């Protein structure tokens, strides 16, 4: 959907070499490095400001890197619908939500503002409230209510995201504005000297929940979305795609009897 020149990939400075190896030369100029973890507000704002400097009218799609989906066509259709909604209403921010099929207690949930029977896939609803990591009984009630799992996929104009963070954390926005006005060769040194002193904040809890113009796009369970943020989910997901993984293992083993990239504990 988006060419490399209009993509930013943000990683910790310690992962610079690994990221460059994985991205290759085509994506090399898309890399944005942060020298420390100052929370997801700074982690999102840093590349968004970089985008804004290049294109003041840009619509940004924020994608967590440790998630997976099984239906890529459905996923991109939802992104396009969210972009369409943002282009119609420039101040809007749209989160991606998946209709839950189990009462997950370690996911964030979104309760949409919708009437009875309004469960059509790829529909955009206003957000009524968030519930973060509920207890089991609460998660069961949310599931019955038709609440959505929060994928943290976000679509909005770069300007809207910057203004929203600036309302809550003006020092963070002001500091990073100084960064993006520097010449490219000066940026890494500025970050090394100043990034650790920036305010630490969670983009979802500290910023998004204060947004008054927030909507959610509803994906059906068939999207096959999963947050791979725990070892259990990662192993289950690898089991689900086991045929592909085993094919890779055996083809790699045919070339090298002791492939260094294969973990023997995996399927």
Would you kindly provide a brief summary of this structure?
By secondary structure, the chain is of the alpha+beta class. It is built from ten helices and ten strands.
Provide an overview of this structure.
Helices cover 42% and strands 20% of the residues. The chain is an alpha+beta fold. It has a single domain, classed as Spore Coat Polysaccharide Biosynthesis Protein SpsA, Chain A. The strands form 3 sheets. It has a 5-stranded mixed barrel. It has a two-stranded parallel sheet with strand order 1-2. The protein is globular and about 55 Å long.
Annotated CATH architecture: Alpha-Beta Complex
- Helix share bin: 40-55%
What's the overall average pLDDT, rounded? 85
CATH class type: Alpha Beta
The assigned structural class equals: alpha+beta
Q: Beta-strand percentage?
A: 15-25%
Topology of this structure?
Blueprint: E1 9-12, H1 16-23, E2 31-34, H2 39-54, E3 59-62, E4 67-68, H3 72-88, E5 93-99, E6 108-113, E7 124-132, H4 136-145, E8 148-157, H5 158-168, H6 170-180, H7 184-194, H8 203-207, E9 214-219, E10 226-227, H9 231-240, H10 242-255
Parallel strand pairs: 1-2, 5-9
Antiparallel strand pairs: 3-8, 4-10, 5-8, 6-7, 6-8, 7-9
């Amino acid at each position: 959907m988006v060419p490399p020149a209009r993509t930013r990939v943000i990683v910790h400075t310690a992962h610079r070499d690994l990221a460059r190896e994985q991205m290759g030369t085509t994506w090399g100029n898309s890399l944005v490095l942060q020298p420390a973890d100052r929370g997801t507000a700074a982690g999102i704002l840093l590349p968004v400001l970089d985008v804004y400097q290049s294109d003041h009218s840009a619509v940004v799609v924020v994608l967590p890197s440790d998630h997976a989906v099984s239906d890529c066509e459905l996923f991109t259709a939802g992104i396009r619908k969210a972009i369409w909604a943002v282009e119609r209403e420039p101040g809007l921010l749209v989160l991606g939500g998946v209709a839950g099929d189990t009462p997950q207690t370690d996911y964030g949930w979104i309760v949409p503002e919708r009437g009875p029977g309004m469960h059509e896939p790829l529909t955009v609803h206003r957000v009524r409230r968030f519930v973060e990591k509920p207890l089991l009984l609460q998660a069961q009630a949310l599931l019955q209510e038709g609440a959505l799992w929060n994928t943290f996929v976000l679509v909005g104009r770069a300007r809207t995201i910057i203004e929203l963070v600036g309302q809550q954390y003006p020092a963070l926005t002001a500091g990073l504005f100084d960064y993006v006005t520097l010449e490219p060769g000066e940026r890494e040194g500025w970050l090394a000297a100043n990034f650790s002193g920036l305010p630490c904040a969670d983009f979802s809890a500290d910023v998004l929940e204060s947004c008054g113009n927030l909507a959610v796009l509803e994906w059906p369970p068939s999207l096959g979305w999963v947050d791979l943020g725990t070892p259990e989910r990662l192993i289950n997901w690898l089991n689900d795609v086991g045929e592909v993984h085993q094919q890779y293992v055996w083809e790699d083993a045919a070339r090298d009897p002791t492939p260094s990239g294969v973990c023997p504990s995996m399927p």
